[in-house]
Write a structure and sequence with these properties.
By secondary structure, the chain is an alpha+beta fold. It is 17% helix and 34% strand. The protein has one domain. It contains three helices and 13 strands; from the N terminus they run H-H-E-E-E-E-E-E-E-E-E-E-E-E-E-H. A hairpin with a 4-residue loop joins strand 10 and strand 11. The longest helix is centred in the first third of the chain and has 16 residues.
Length: 215
């Protein structure tokens, strides 16, 4: 029963996201090189987990700057603190080749929920509120021009978040159940030929990625 309810929520928000977040997406990053997930949630019983890995495929820079922003359904940003306790509106970090970054979105002061102490090394968006939040998740490149080859010192290649591998889940803590998140625009949407992005294929894939990302 719970699985069907959660699946229904996921389908609803996938449908809903297709109509409403486009203006926010445009405002967040003019390059239109975002990865989008249509739903995240954090309340007294539920948290969100996201994993981001750098697959180190040919054509990628060895370091990619990432900005993770969790917006509410009305487009506003909740008040968050990060894993160091600092007030933040997003998470900004650099991921290196062959590594994985773990991100949790949780509500503050919830017993048995993941915390920076219980999951050392993970990154946190902890919502400072007595009530839960949910909405749309955006993952953006930190680079102003992610399709330009990176400067010396960070490995030649592109710094696009679309080349990262991203997955996640909305988790019901008490029952260890939940549902997988959908990410639109990461490397699962990009076509590779013999381990590298083919120029002709990339042109097609870029158009498809933008369409899927509702730009």
């Amino acid at each position: 029963m719970l699985k069907n309810v959660l699946r229904g929520f996921c389908v609803f928000f996938l449908f809903w996201a297709g109509f409403f977040p486009a203006e926010n997406a445009q405002a967040l990053n003019a390059t239109e090189k975002n990865v989008i997930s249509p739903y995240w949630q954090a309340d007294s019983a539920v948290y969100t987990y996201i994993g981001i890995s750098h697959p180190s495929v040919s054509g990628m820079a060895s370091q990619v700057g990432v900005i993770v922003t969790a917006l509410k359904a009305d487009g506003s940003t909740p008040s968050f603190t990060n894993e160091d306790g600092a007030s933040v509106s997003n998470l900004t970090f650099t991921i290196s080749a062959g590594t994985v970054e773990k991100i949790f979105i949780v509500l503050t002061n919830q017993v048995s929920m993941p915390t920076p102490t219980s999951v050392p090394g993970a990154k946190f968006l902890t919502a400072l509120s007595t009530s839960g939040h949910s909405g749309i998740l955006y993952i953006q490149p930190k680079a102003a021009n992610p399709d330009a080859v990176s400067a010396a010192g960070v490995g030649d290649g592109l710094r696009s978040v679309e080349m990262l591998s991203i997955w996640g889940a909305v988790v019901v803590q008490a029952t260890s159940t939940g549902f997988a998140m959908e990410f639109i625009g990461d490397n699962h949407s990009v076509l590779f030929v013999n381990g590298s992005v083919d120029n002709e294929v990339a042109n097609i894939s870029g158009a498809v990625t933008k369409a899927r990302a509702m730009k």
